[in-house]
Amino acid sequence: MKTIPLVHKKLSVVLFGVASAFFIPAVAGVAPSIAAPSVAGLPDFTDLVEKTGPAVVNIRTTEKAKVQQGNAATDDEEMQEFFRRFFGAPIPPRQQQPAPRGRGKAAPDAEEEVPRGVGSGFIISADGYVMTNAHVVNGADEVYVTLTDKREYKAKIIGADTRTDVALVKIEGSNLPRLTMGDSNKIRVGEWVIAIGSPFGLDNSVTAGIVSAKARDTGDYLPLIQTDVAVNPGNSGGPLINMRGEVIGINSQIYSRSGGYMGISFAVPIDEAMRVADQLRATGKVTRGRVGVQIGEVTKDVAESLGLSRPQGALVQRVEPGGPAEKGGVEAGDVILKFNGVGIERSSDLPRLVGSTKPGTRSVMTVWRKGAMRDLNLVVAELEADKVVKKEDKKPKAEQVANALGLIVSDLNAAQLKELKIDGGILIEATEGAAARAGLRAGDIILRLNNTDIKDARQFNGLVTKLDTKKTTLLLVRRGDSSQFVTIKPLAQ
């Protein structure tokens, strides 16, 4: 998912054009224009906005950064990543402070609170619980919440869940305006919805559109609501509201090939968001179930070869040694058709069903094996938090150049391989071009290129140089506990 960079030049041109229209002198003899009557049948959002707008807030975050007294200063990596994702562009470089004059030794580095980013949120309780996106507040040292009446509060982060991109923060207030939660299951494709937020820092901006799809599978942990509501950087964390004034989702991402808004935006369903928020409020974290299988989609060809009447279920590609699935008798090649009696249409349905199951629960998994269905009993385990590959402190190297896929990669050491429980693979250090457009990012692990398992960076880069630029390349990429295939077309070098 890409966000839209703020182009100051273009914006200023638009604003100037609008402003100039108000200063066109009246022409003698020209009759004043008559306001056109309202068109029947079109929705009127005015009452809806007046009712819900006061409960939508602006969220700004800061971080404590060392201000160096000399000329040497480096941008904080996490801050850069935030701005790349949230604003679509790197943060402008900080102004360097001149070294102090006069006596002897230089003053020690001092910490200063610097802006990190802005986003949106909405109040869900009169006592000050605010919901937003996890990526809005993750990594922030301080969070400030501003209401439409300009009251500003310092907020406490109760918890954040990166898998669903949901966060809960708390401000100290009472009798605050709040929004009513709706039912994501009752959403109808084609119904009108509005988004309220702070795109580019423009507080309480309203945009409208329709629901384009109810459960769009984007590869994330949960299906998202797709709309054509204009959502821009700064809208993240704001509410998606139906015509009854109920929140049905949290605006989270957009899809774009150009870097600009292209009529496709996504929101986290409010039902799942509230389940996450309830856990965050109770324990500060989210607990999910796991069974220990790596799965893939059941295609038409696979279904026919296995004797299934139609493509359905989740194909087991790998069973974790010693995991709940192995203990329950699940084998590679099985097709999981049901979990606790709930049918699985697509492979993405399984992790959501398992994830919502309390660890320790005895469950029944219905699988298709050798032309027949069978029920297997297993005990759901707890899903561990995403493991992040820690970068080692290394001596500065000469600037590396991205390969034909737009990737800069490095080797994983023995400790990292052990922690990730893998035999091989390489770490993505940076992305650009085709790799960035494909959604790859620093910290991802590449396990396979086409049909070749990857052992180290030298082998990988050697294989890349031999790729046919006319053909699409297939990468098996791991992020957190999940793996998926990504297609990239190499560039000629």
Q: Per CATH, which architecture of the largest domain?
A: Beta Barrel
User: What is the CATH topology classification name of the largest domain?
Assistant: Thrombin, subunit H
From the N-terminal CA to the C-terminal CA, the straight-line distance is 26 Å
Give the CATH H-level superfamily of the largest domain: Trypsin-like serine proteases
Mind telling me the CATH class of the largest domain?
Answer: Mainly Beta
Q: Which radius of gyration do the C-alpha atoms yield?
A: 26 Å
| Average predicted local confidence, pLDDT | 80
Q: What is the count of β-strands?
A: 27
Count of folded domains: 4
**Overall geometric form:** globular
| Structural class by helix and strand composition | alpha+beta
Order of the strands making up the biggest sheet: 1-2-3-6-5-4
The percentage helix is 10-25%
Number of helices: 11
Low-pLDDT windows of residues: 1-31, 69-106, 388-398
Proportion in β-strands: 25-35%
For the largest beta-sheet, the strand count, sense and barrel status come to: 6 strands, antiparallel, barrel
